[in-house]
Design goal:
By secondary structure, the chain is an alpha/beta fold. The protein is about 40% helix and about 15% strand. Strand 9, helix 9 and strand 10 form a beta-alpha-beta unit.
Length: about 375
């Protein structure tokens, strides 16, 4: 069975990894990686090199991302990605193509496949993020797909509502957490030395723009910087940089200013990779920001998360989430609360022990129909 996997960023590739290992190891599947988006951007860490190091037989590379991140540039990148994939789908045929999440470039690649009858399987559909335009892209991808692998039953219900029936809808948990119970962390001293982190407690920080409220992002980015400057008096800050969203450069500018003002208290990382990122999460004191990994993965590492703003609003939350508005005083208060709570010992609502197996088994069962 010939399988294509669309990956457009460091984030979705890390989520895919448990499934990719299963597909690569099983002779039933002929696996091809289709890499595009920020994977091919040197500004975002040129993460195609990580994919190449993982030893896939076929890796397609499609470059279509503009360097600017204003609204016009994002719309142009969307159109360019669609054009590039029109040529790609004309020349490349698959029994099934995996797509994941809600990125604009992922939506563009999928939309281009509709006239060609490409059979898409969507992972992480049915979720709601009211503070991000990705909410629209996610639902577009869902409607264009024939198979759906959601992270929770409530998301499967949303997918059923969107497509009008429950055919091909499966609840499998979050794929990124597959095998988390046996995940091998990087040894602590090696991790700290690798990234030159001082031997002290640190917060893991990731902020992305709110792409619904684009005009407010300059104000939000300043509030972020003011809050982090105060938090840096208590904790070292390990900051993973924003992805290629509208107005992402505004946050990068404020993070750069923060680093300039507090060079001994801030580490900026363009791309950790999954092993380093999970190790960073485990060794951190808490998470701060508005990234989906805080919502989906942090509970499995016993971490409290200060979730800022409305980018993740509407998403299912475990009890480790402490919500705060984009106000520096509110962010600081939420961080203080998280530090008092210390270690989270509740359940992760996104966890299922066998996500990758559930997906591959469903594909095999449906192979004749496909």
């Amino acid at each position: 069975m010939k399988i294509g996997v669309l990956t457009s960023s460091r984030a979705d590739y890390g989520i895919y990894l448990p499934l990719l290992l299963k597909l690569k190891a099983d002779p039933f599947f002929e696996l091809e990686i289709i890499a595009f988006g920020t994977h091919l951007s040197k500004f975002h860490g040129f993460t195609i090199t990580e994919i190449e190091q993982n030893g896939y037989n076929v890796i397609h590379k499609i470059s279509s991302l503009l360097s600017n991140d204003d609204e016009q540039s994002i719309a142009t990148s969307y159109g360019l990605t669609t054009l590039k994939f029109a040529d790609f789908w004309q020349s490349n045929k698959y029994d099934l193509v995996f797509c994941l999440g809600d990125r604009f470039e992922m939506s563009a690649a999928v939309q281009a496949g509709i006239p060609f009858g490409v059979k898409f399987a969507h992972i992480h559909g049915g979720e709601t993020t009211l503070g991000a335009i990705d909410n629209i892209y996610r639902h577009q991808i869902t409607i264009a797909s024939i198979l759906h692998f959601s992270a929770a039953s409530s998301f499967s219900e949303k997918i059923t509502e969107l497509i009008g029936n429950s055919n091909g809808v499966h609840t499998v948990g979050s794929l990124s957490l597959d095998g988390i119970e046996s995940f091998k962390l990087i040894e602590k001293s090696l991790f700290y030395d690798r990234f030159k982190i001082p031997y002290q407690e640190f917060a893991l920080v990731t902020f992305h723009p709110e792409t619904i409220a684009t005009k407010l992002n300059k104000e939000y980015a300043i509030e972020m910087r003011l809050a982090l400057a105060q938090i840096a008096k208590k904790l070292f800050l390990v900051i993973t940089m924003p992805n290629a969203d509208t107005m992402g450069s505004v946050y990068r500018k404020e993070i750069a200013k923060l680093k300039e003002e507090h060079p001994e208290k801030v580490l900026c990382v363009e791309n950790f990779g999954k092993e380093n990122y999970f190790s960073a999460m485990y060794y951190s004191k808490l998470l701060i920001g508005n990234t989906s990994s805080g919502i989906i993965e942090a509970a499995s590492f016993g971490k409290y998360v200060v979730n800022v703003g409305e980018r993740q609003k509407g998403r299912l939350q475990s009890d480790n989430i402490i919500n705060a508005s984009f106000n520096y005083q509110n962010i600081i208060k939420a961080v203080d609360k998280a530090l008092v709570n210390n270690i989270f010992d509740g359940i992760n609502k996104y966890y299922n022990k066998h996500s990758a197996d559930l997906i591959t088994n469903q594909i095999k069962q449906l192979n004749e129909i496909l």
